[in-house]
Amino acid sequence: MEGNLNALTTIFTEFYYWVTIVMMFLIHVGFCTYEVGVSRRRNHLKTLMKNAMAIPLVTVTFYFFGWWIYFGFPNGPGIAGGLVTAPFAEAWNPLMGTHLSGVNPGETGVTPADAALWHRLNGVFWGAFLLFSITTASIISGSIIERARSGAFWIVAVLIGSVLWILDASWGWHPQGWMVKLWGYHDAYASGVVHAIAGGAALAFLIVLGPRIGKFKADGTPRDIPPHNVWLVTIGLFLIYTGFWGFYAACNIPLISPATIAGQITGETWTATNIYLAPTTLSAITFNFLMSLSGGMMAGYLVSKGDPFWTFSMGLCGVISASAGNDLYHPIQALLIGAIVPTICYKLHYFVERRFKIDDAVGAVAVHGYGGFLGVVVAGFMLWGQPSSPYEGFAHINPLGNFAGAVLMFVLGFVPTFVACKILNSMNLLRVPAKVELEGVDFALNHAFEASVREVGTAEKAMMK
Amino acid sequence: MSTNGMENWAVDLKDVGAIYPFQGSEVLMVIVGLAFWIGWHILQTRHESAEIEADMAADRSGEETRAAIDRY
């Protein structure tokens, strides 16, 4: 590393992203807690494991190919150029391991420039993006509880977490992504690239999977299947809120000079930037995160008449719906967007449930899918005419570009997931049989547990005098 | 003899690249890792199918299922 300031900046950036990874893990603690709270007792263990095992499965596949997709596909390829070479992100490259910045004799695929930039940043950038990936996969998990086979979910988790979302991130969440260049797509904190795509995938999964037994009466009227433990549900959502601070921070570059950006910004003033390398501040996103969360919770309390599940869920939806533009909104704009969009999503959830018999156990399609979709659309209007990028020649932010982008995100999640679920269903691998669903998917595990309890109890009682 | 080529730290760090063991076998490691991942899915699917078969054969009377439903 050249010079102490550069060294300090690199090491600060490395540590900054490392901290965001730790914070984002709380999102997954929250998802697990939340889903177990929603599920009924006879499904707890499988519900927990279904979500938890998405972590290692998306991790290994994101190492093998997900990270490379982000750097390889910003042009489409074939839309704004060809496939981009990114040797530092290939699983077999020495920079995908412990590396000290030089180039060893015989070390292939490493240039001095790549080594200087990536030896300290590759792992933490990969980790931060990985946590976004796991989040995208986990969003689907809650919707399908109590009847989906875990193995089917894990295959879809890899598809969405290590292929589809990172492809859309390469297109619309990369400083050189073709959607940013050509459409002026703006989605700073991932309303579309994480949430809309996950919502689209969840909807596709639910359509093929079908509702839980007992969810709908013979005449098609939905029944409420309440969470078995509302406390766990709300603690889970609180943990997701907490992890979202890391998510937001990880979408920023913490400190960078105009010379390093090498775009149109003049002068010497260093700045934080959003993912597109356009200036923002941590303070701005702190204002807007909290105000959009508040808007969602306040609206949620009113429309659900104080229901804890929906008050907390709409708080999350408030953040998601303002996320596309939370680098640039005024806090009161974030508050109002965070209140209005979740109200629409809440109404849409019940409309879709009644009209199309979709049993989304946690409202993920509404909170993430509709919330993310509408959030991107609103940002297109609110930020109309603003620069999408610090680089010359990029389209400006506009309603049409963001609307097309929102549609693309939702469809990119929906279509491949629908096809994958159809294939799994045709192989009898998507859903457990009705008898097992009624017994509970934990039946065998509970049996083993009860047998152990009986055996040890009998042995202990035999020791009593 | 050292598995990563480093036998002491009397070096300028800017001249040192990778320091994990067995450098040069990265492609082989990726192949092994991919096989582990795909093999895991295959084994998991078999285990899950066997468990579902056992569940289908259990509780013919439905007594335990009724009790589980009542427990919510």
Polypeptide structure, described:
By secondary structure, chain A is mainly α. Chain A has one domain: Ammonium transporter AmtB like domains (Ammonium transporter fold), CATH 1.10.3430.10. Chain A has helices at residues 4-38, 44-52, 54-72, 112-118, 122-143, 150-172, 178-183, 191-209, 230-250, 258-261, 282-303, 308-323, 331-356, 364-382, 399-426, 434-439, 443-462; strands spanning 253-256, 271-273, 279-280. In chain A, strands 1-2-3 form a 3-stranded antiparallel sheet. In chain A, a hairpin with a 5-residue loop joins strand 2 (271-273) and strand 3. In chain A, helix 1 (4-38) packs antiparallel against helix 9 (230-250) and helix 12 crosses helix 13. The longest helix of chain A is centred in the N-terminal third of the chain and has 35 residues, at 4-38. The model of chain A has no long low-confidence stretch (mean pLDDT 96). By secondary structure, chain B is an all-alpha fold. The mean pLDDT of chain B is 95. Chain B has a domain at 24-71. Chain B has 2 helices and no strands. Chain B is 57% helix and 0% strand. Chain B starts with 25 loop residues before the first helix and ends with a helix.
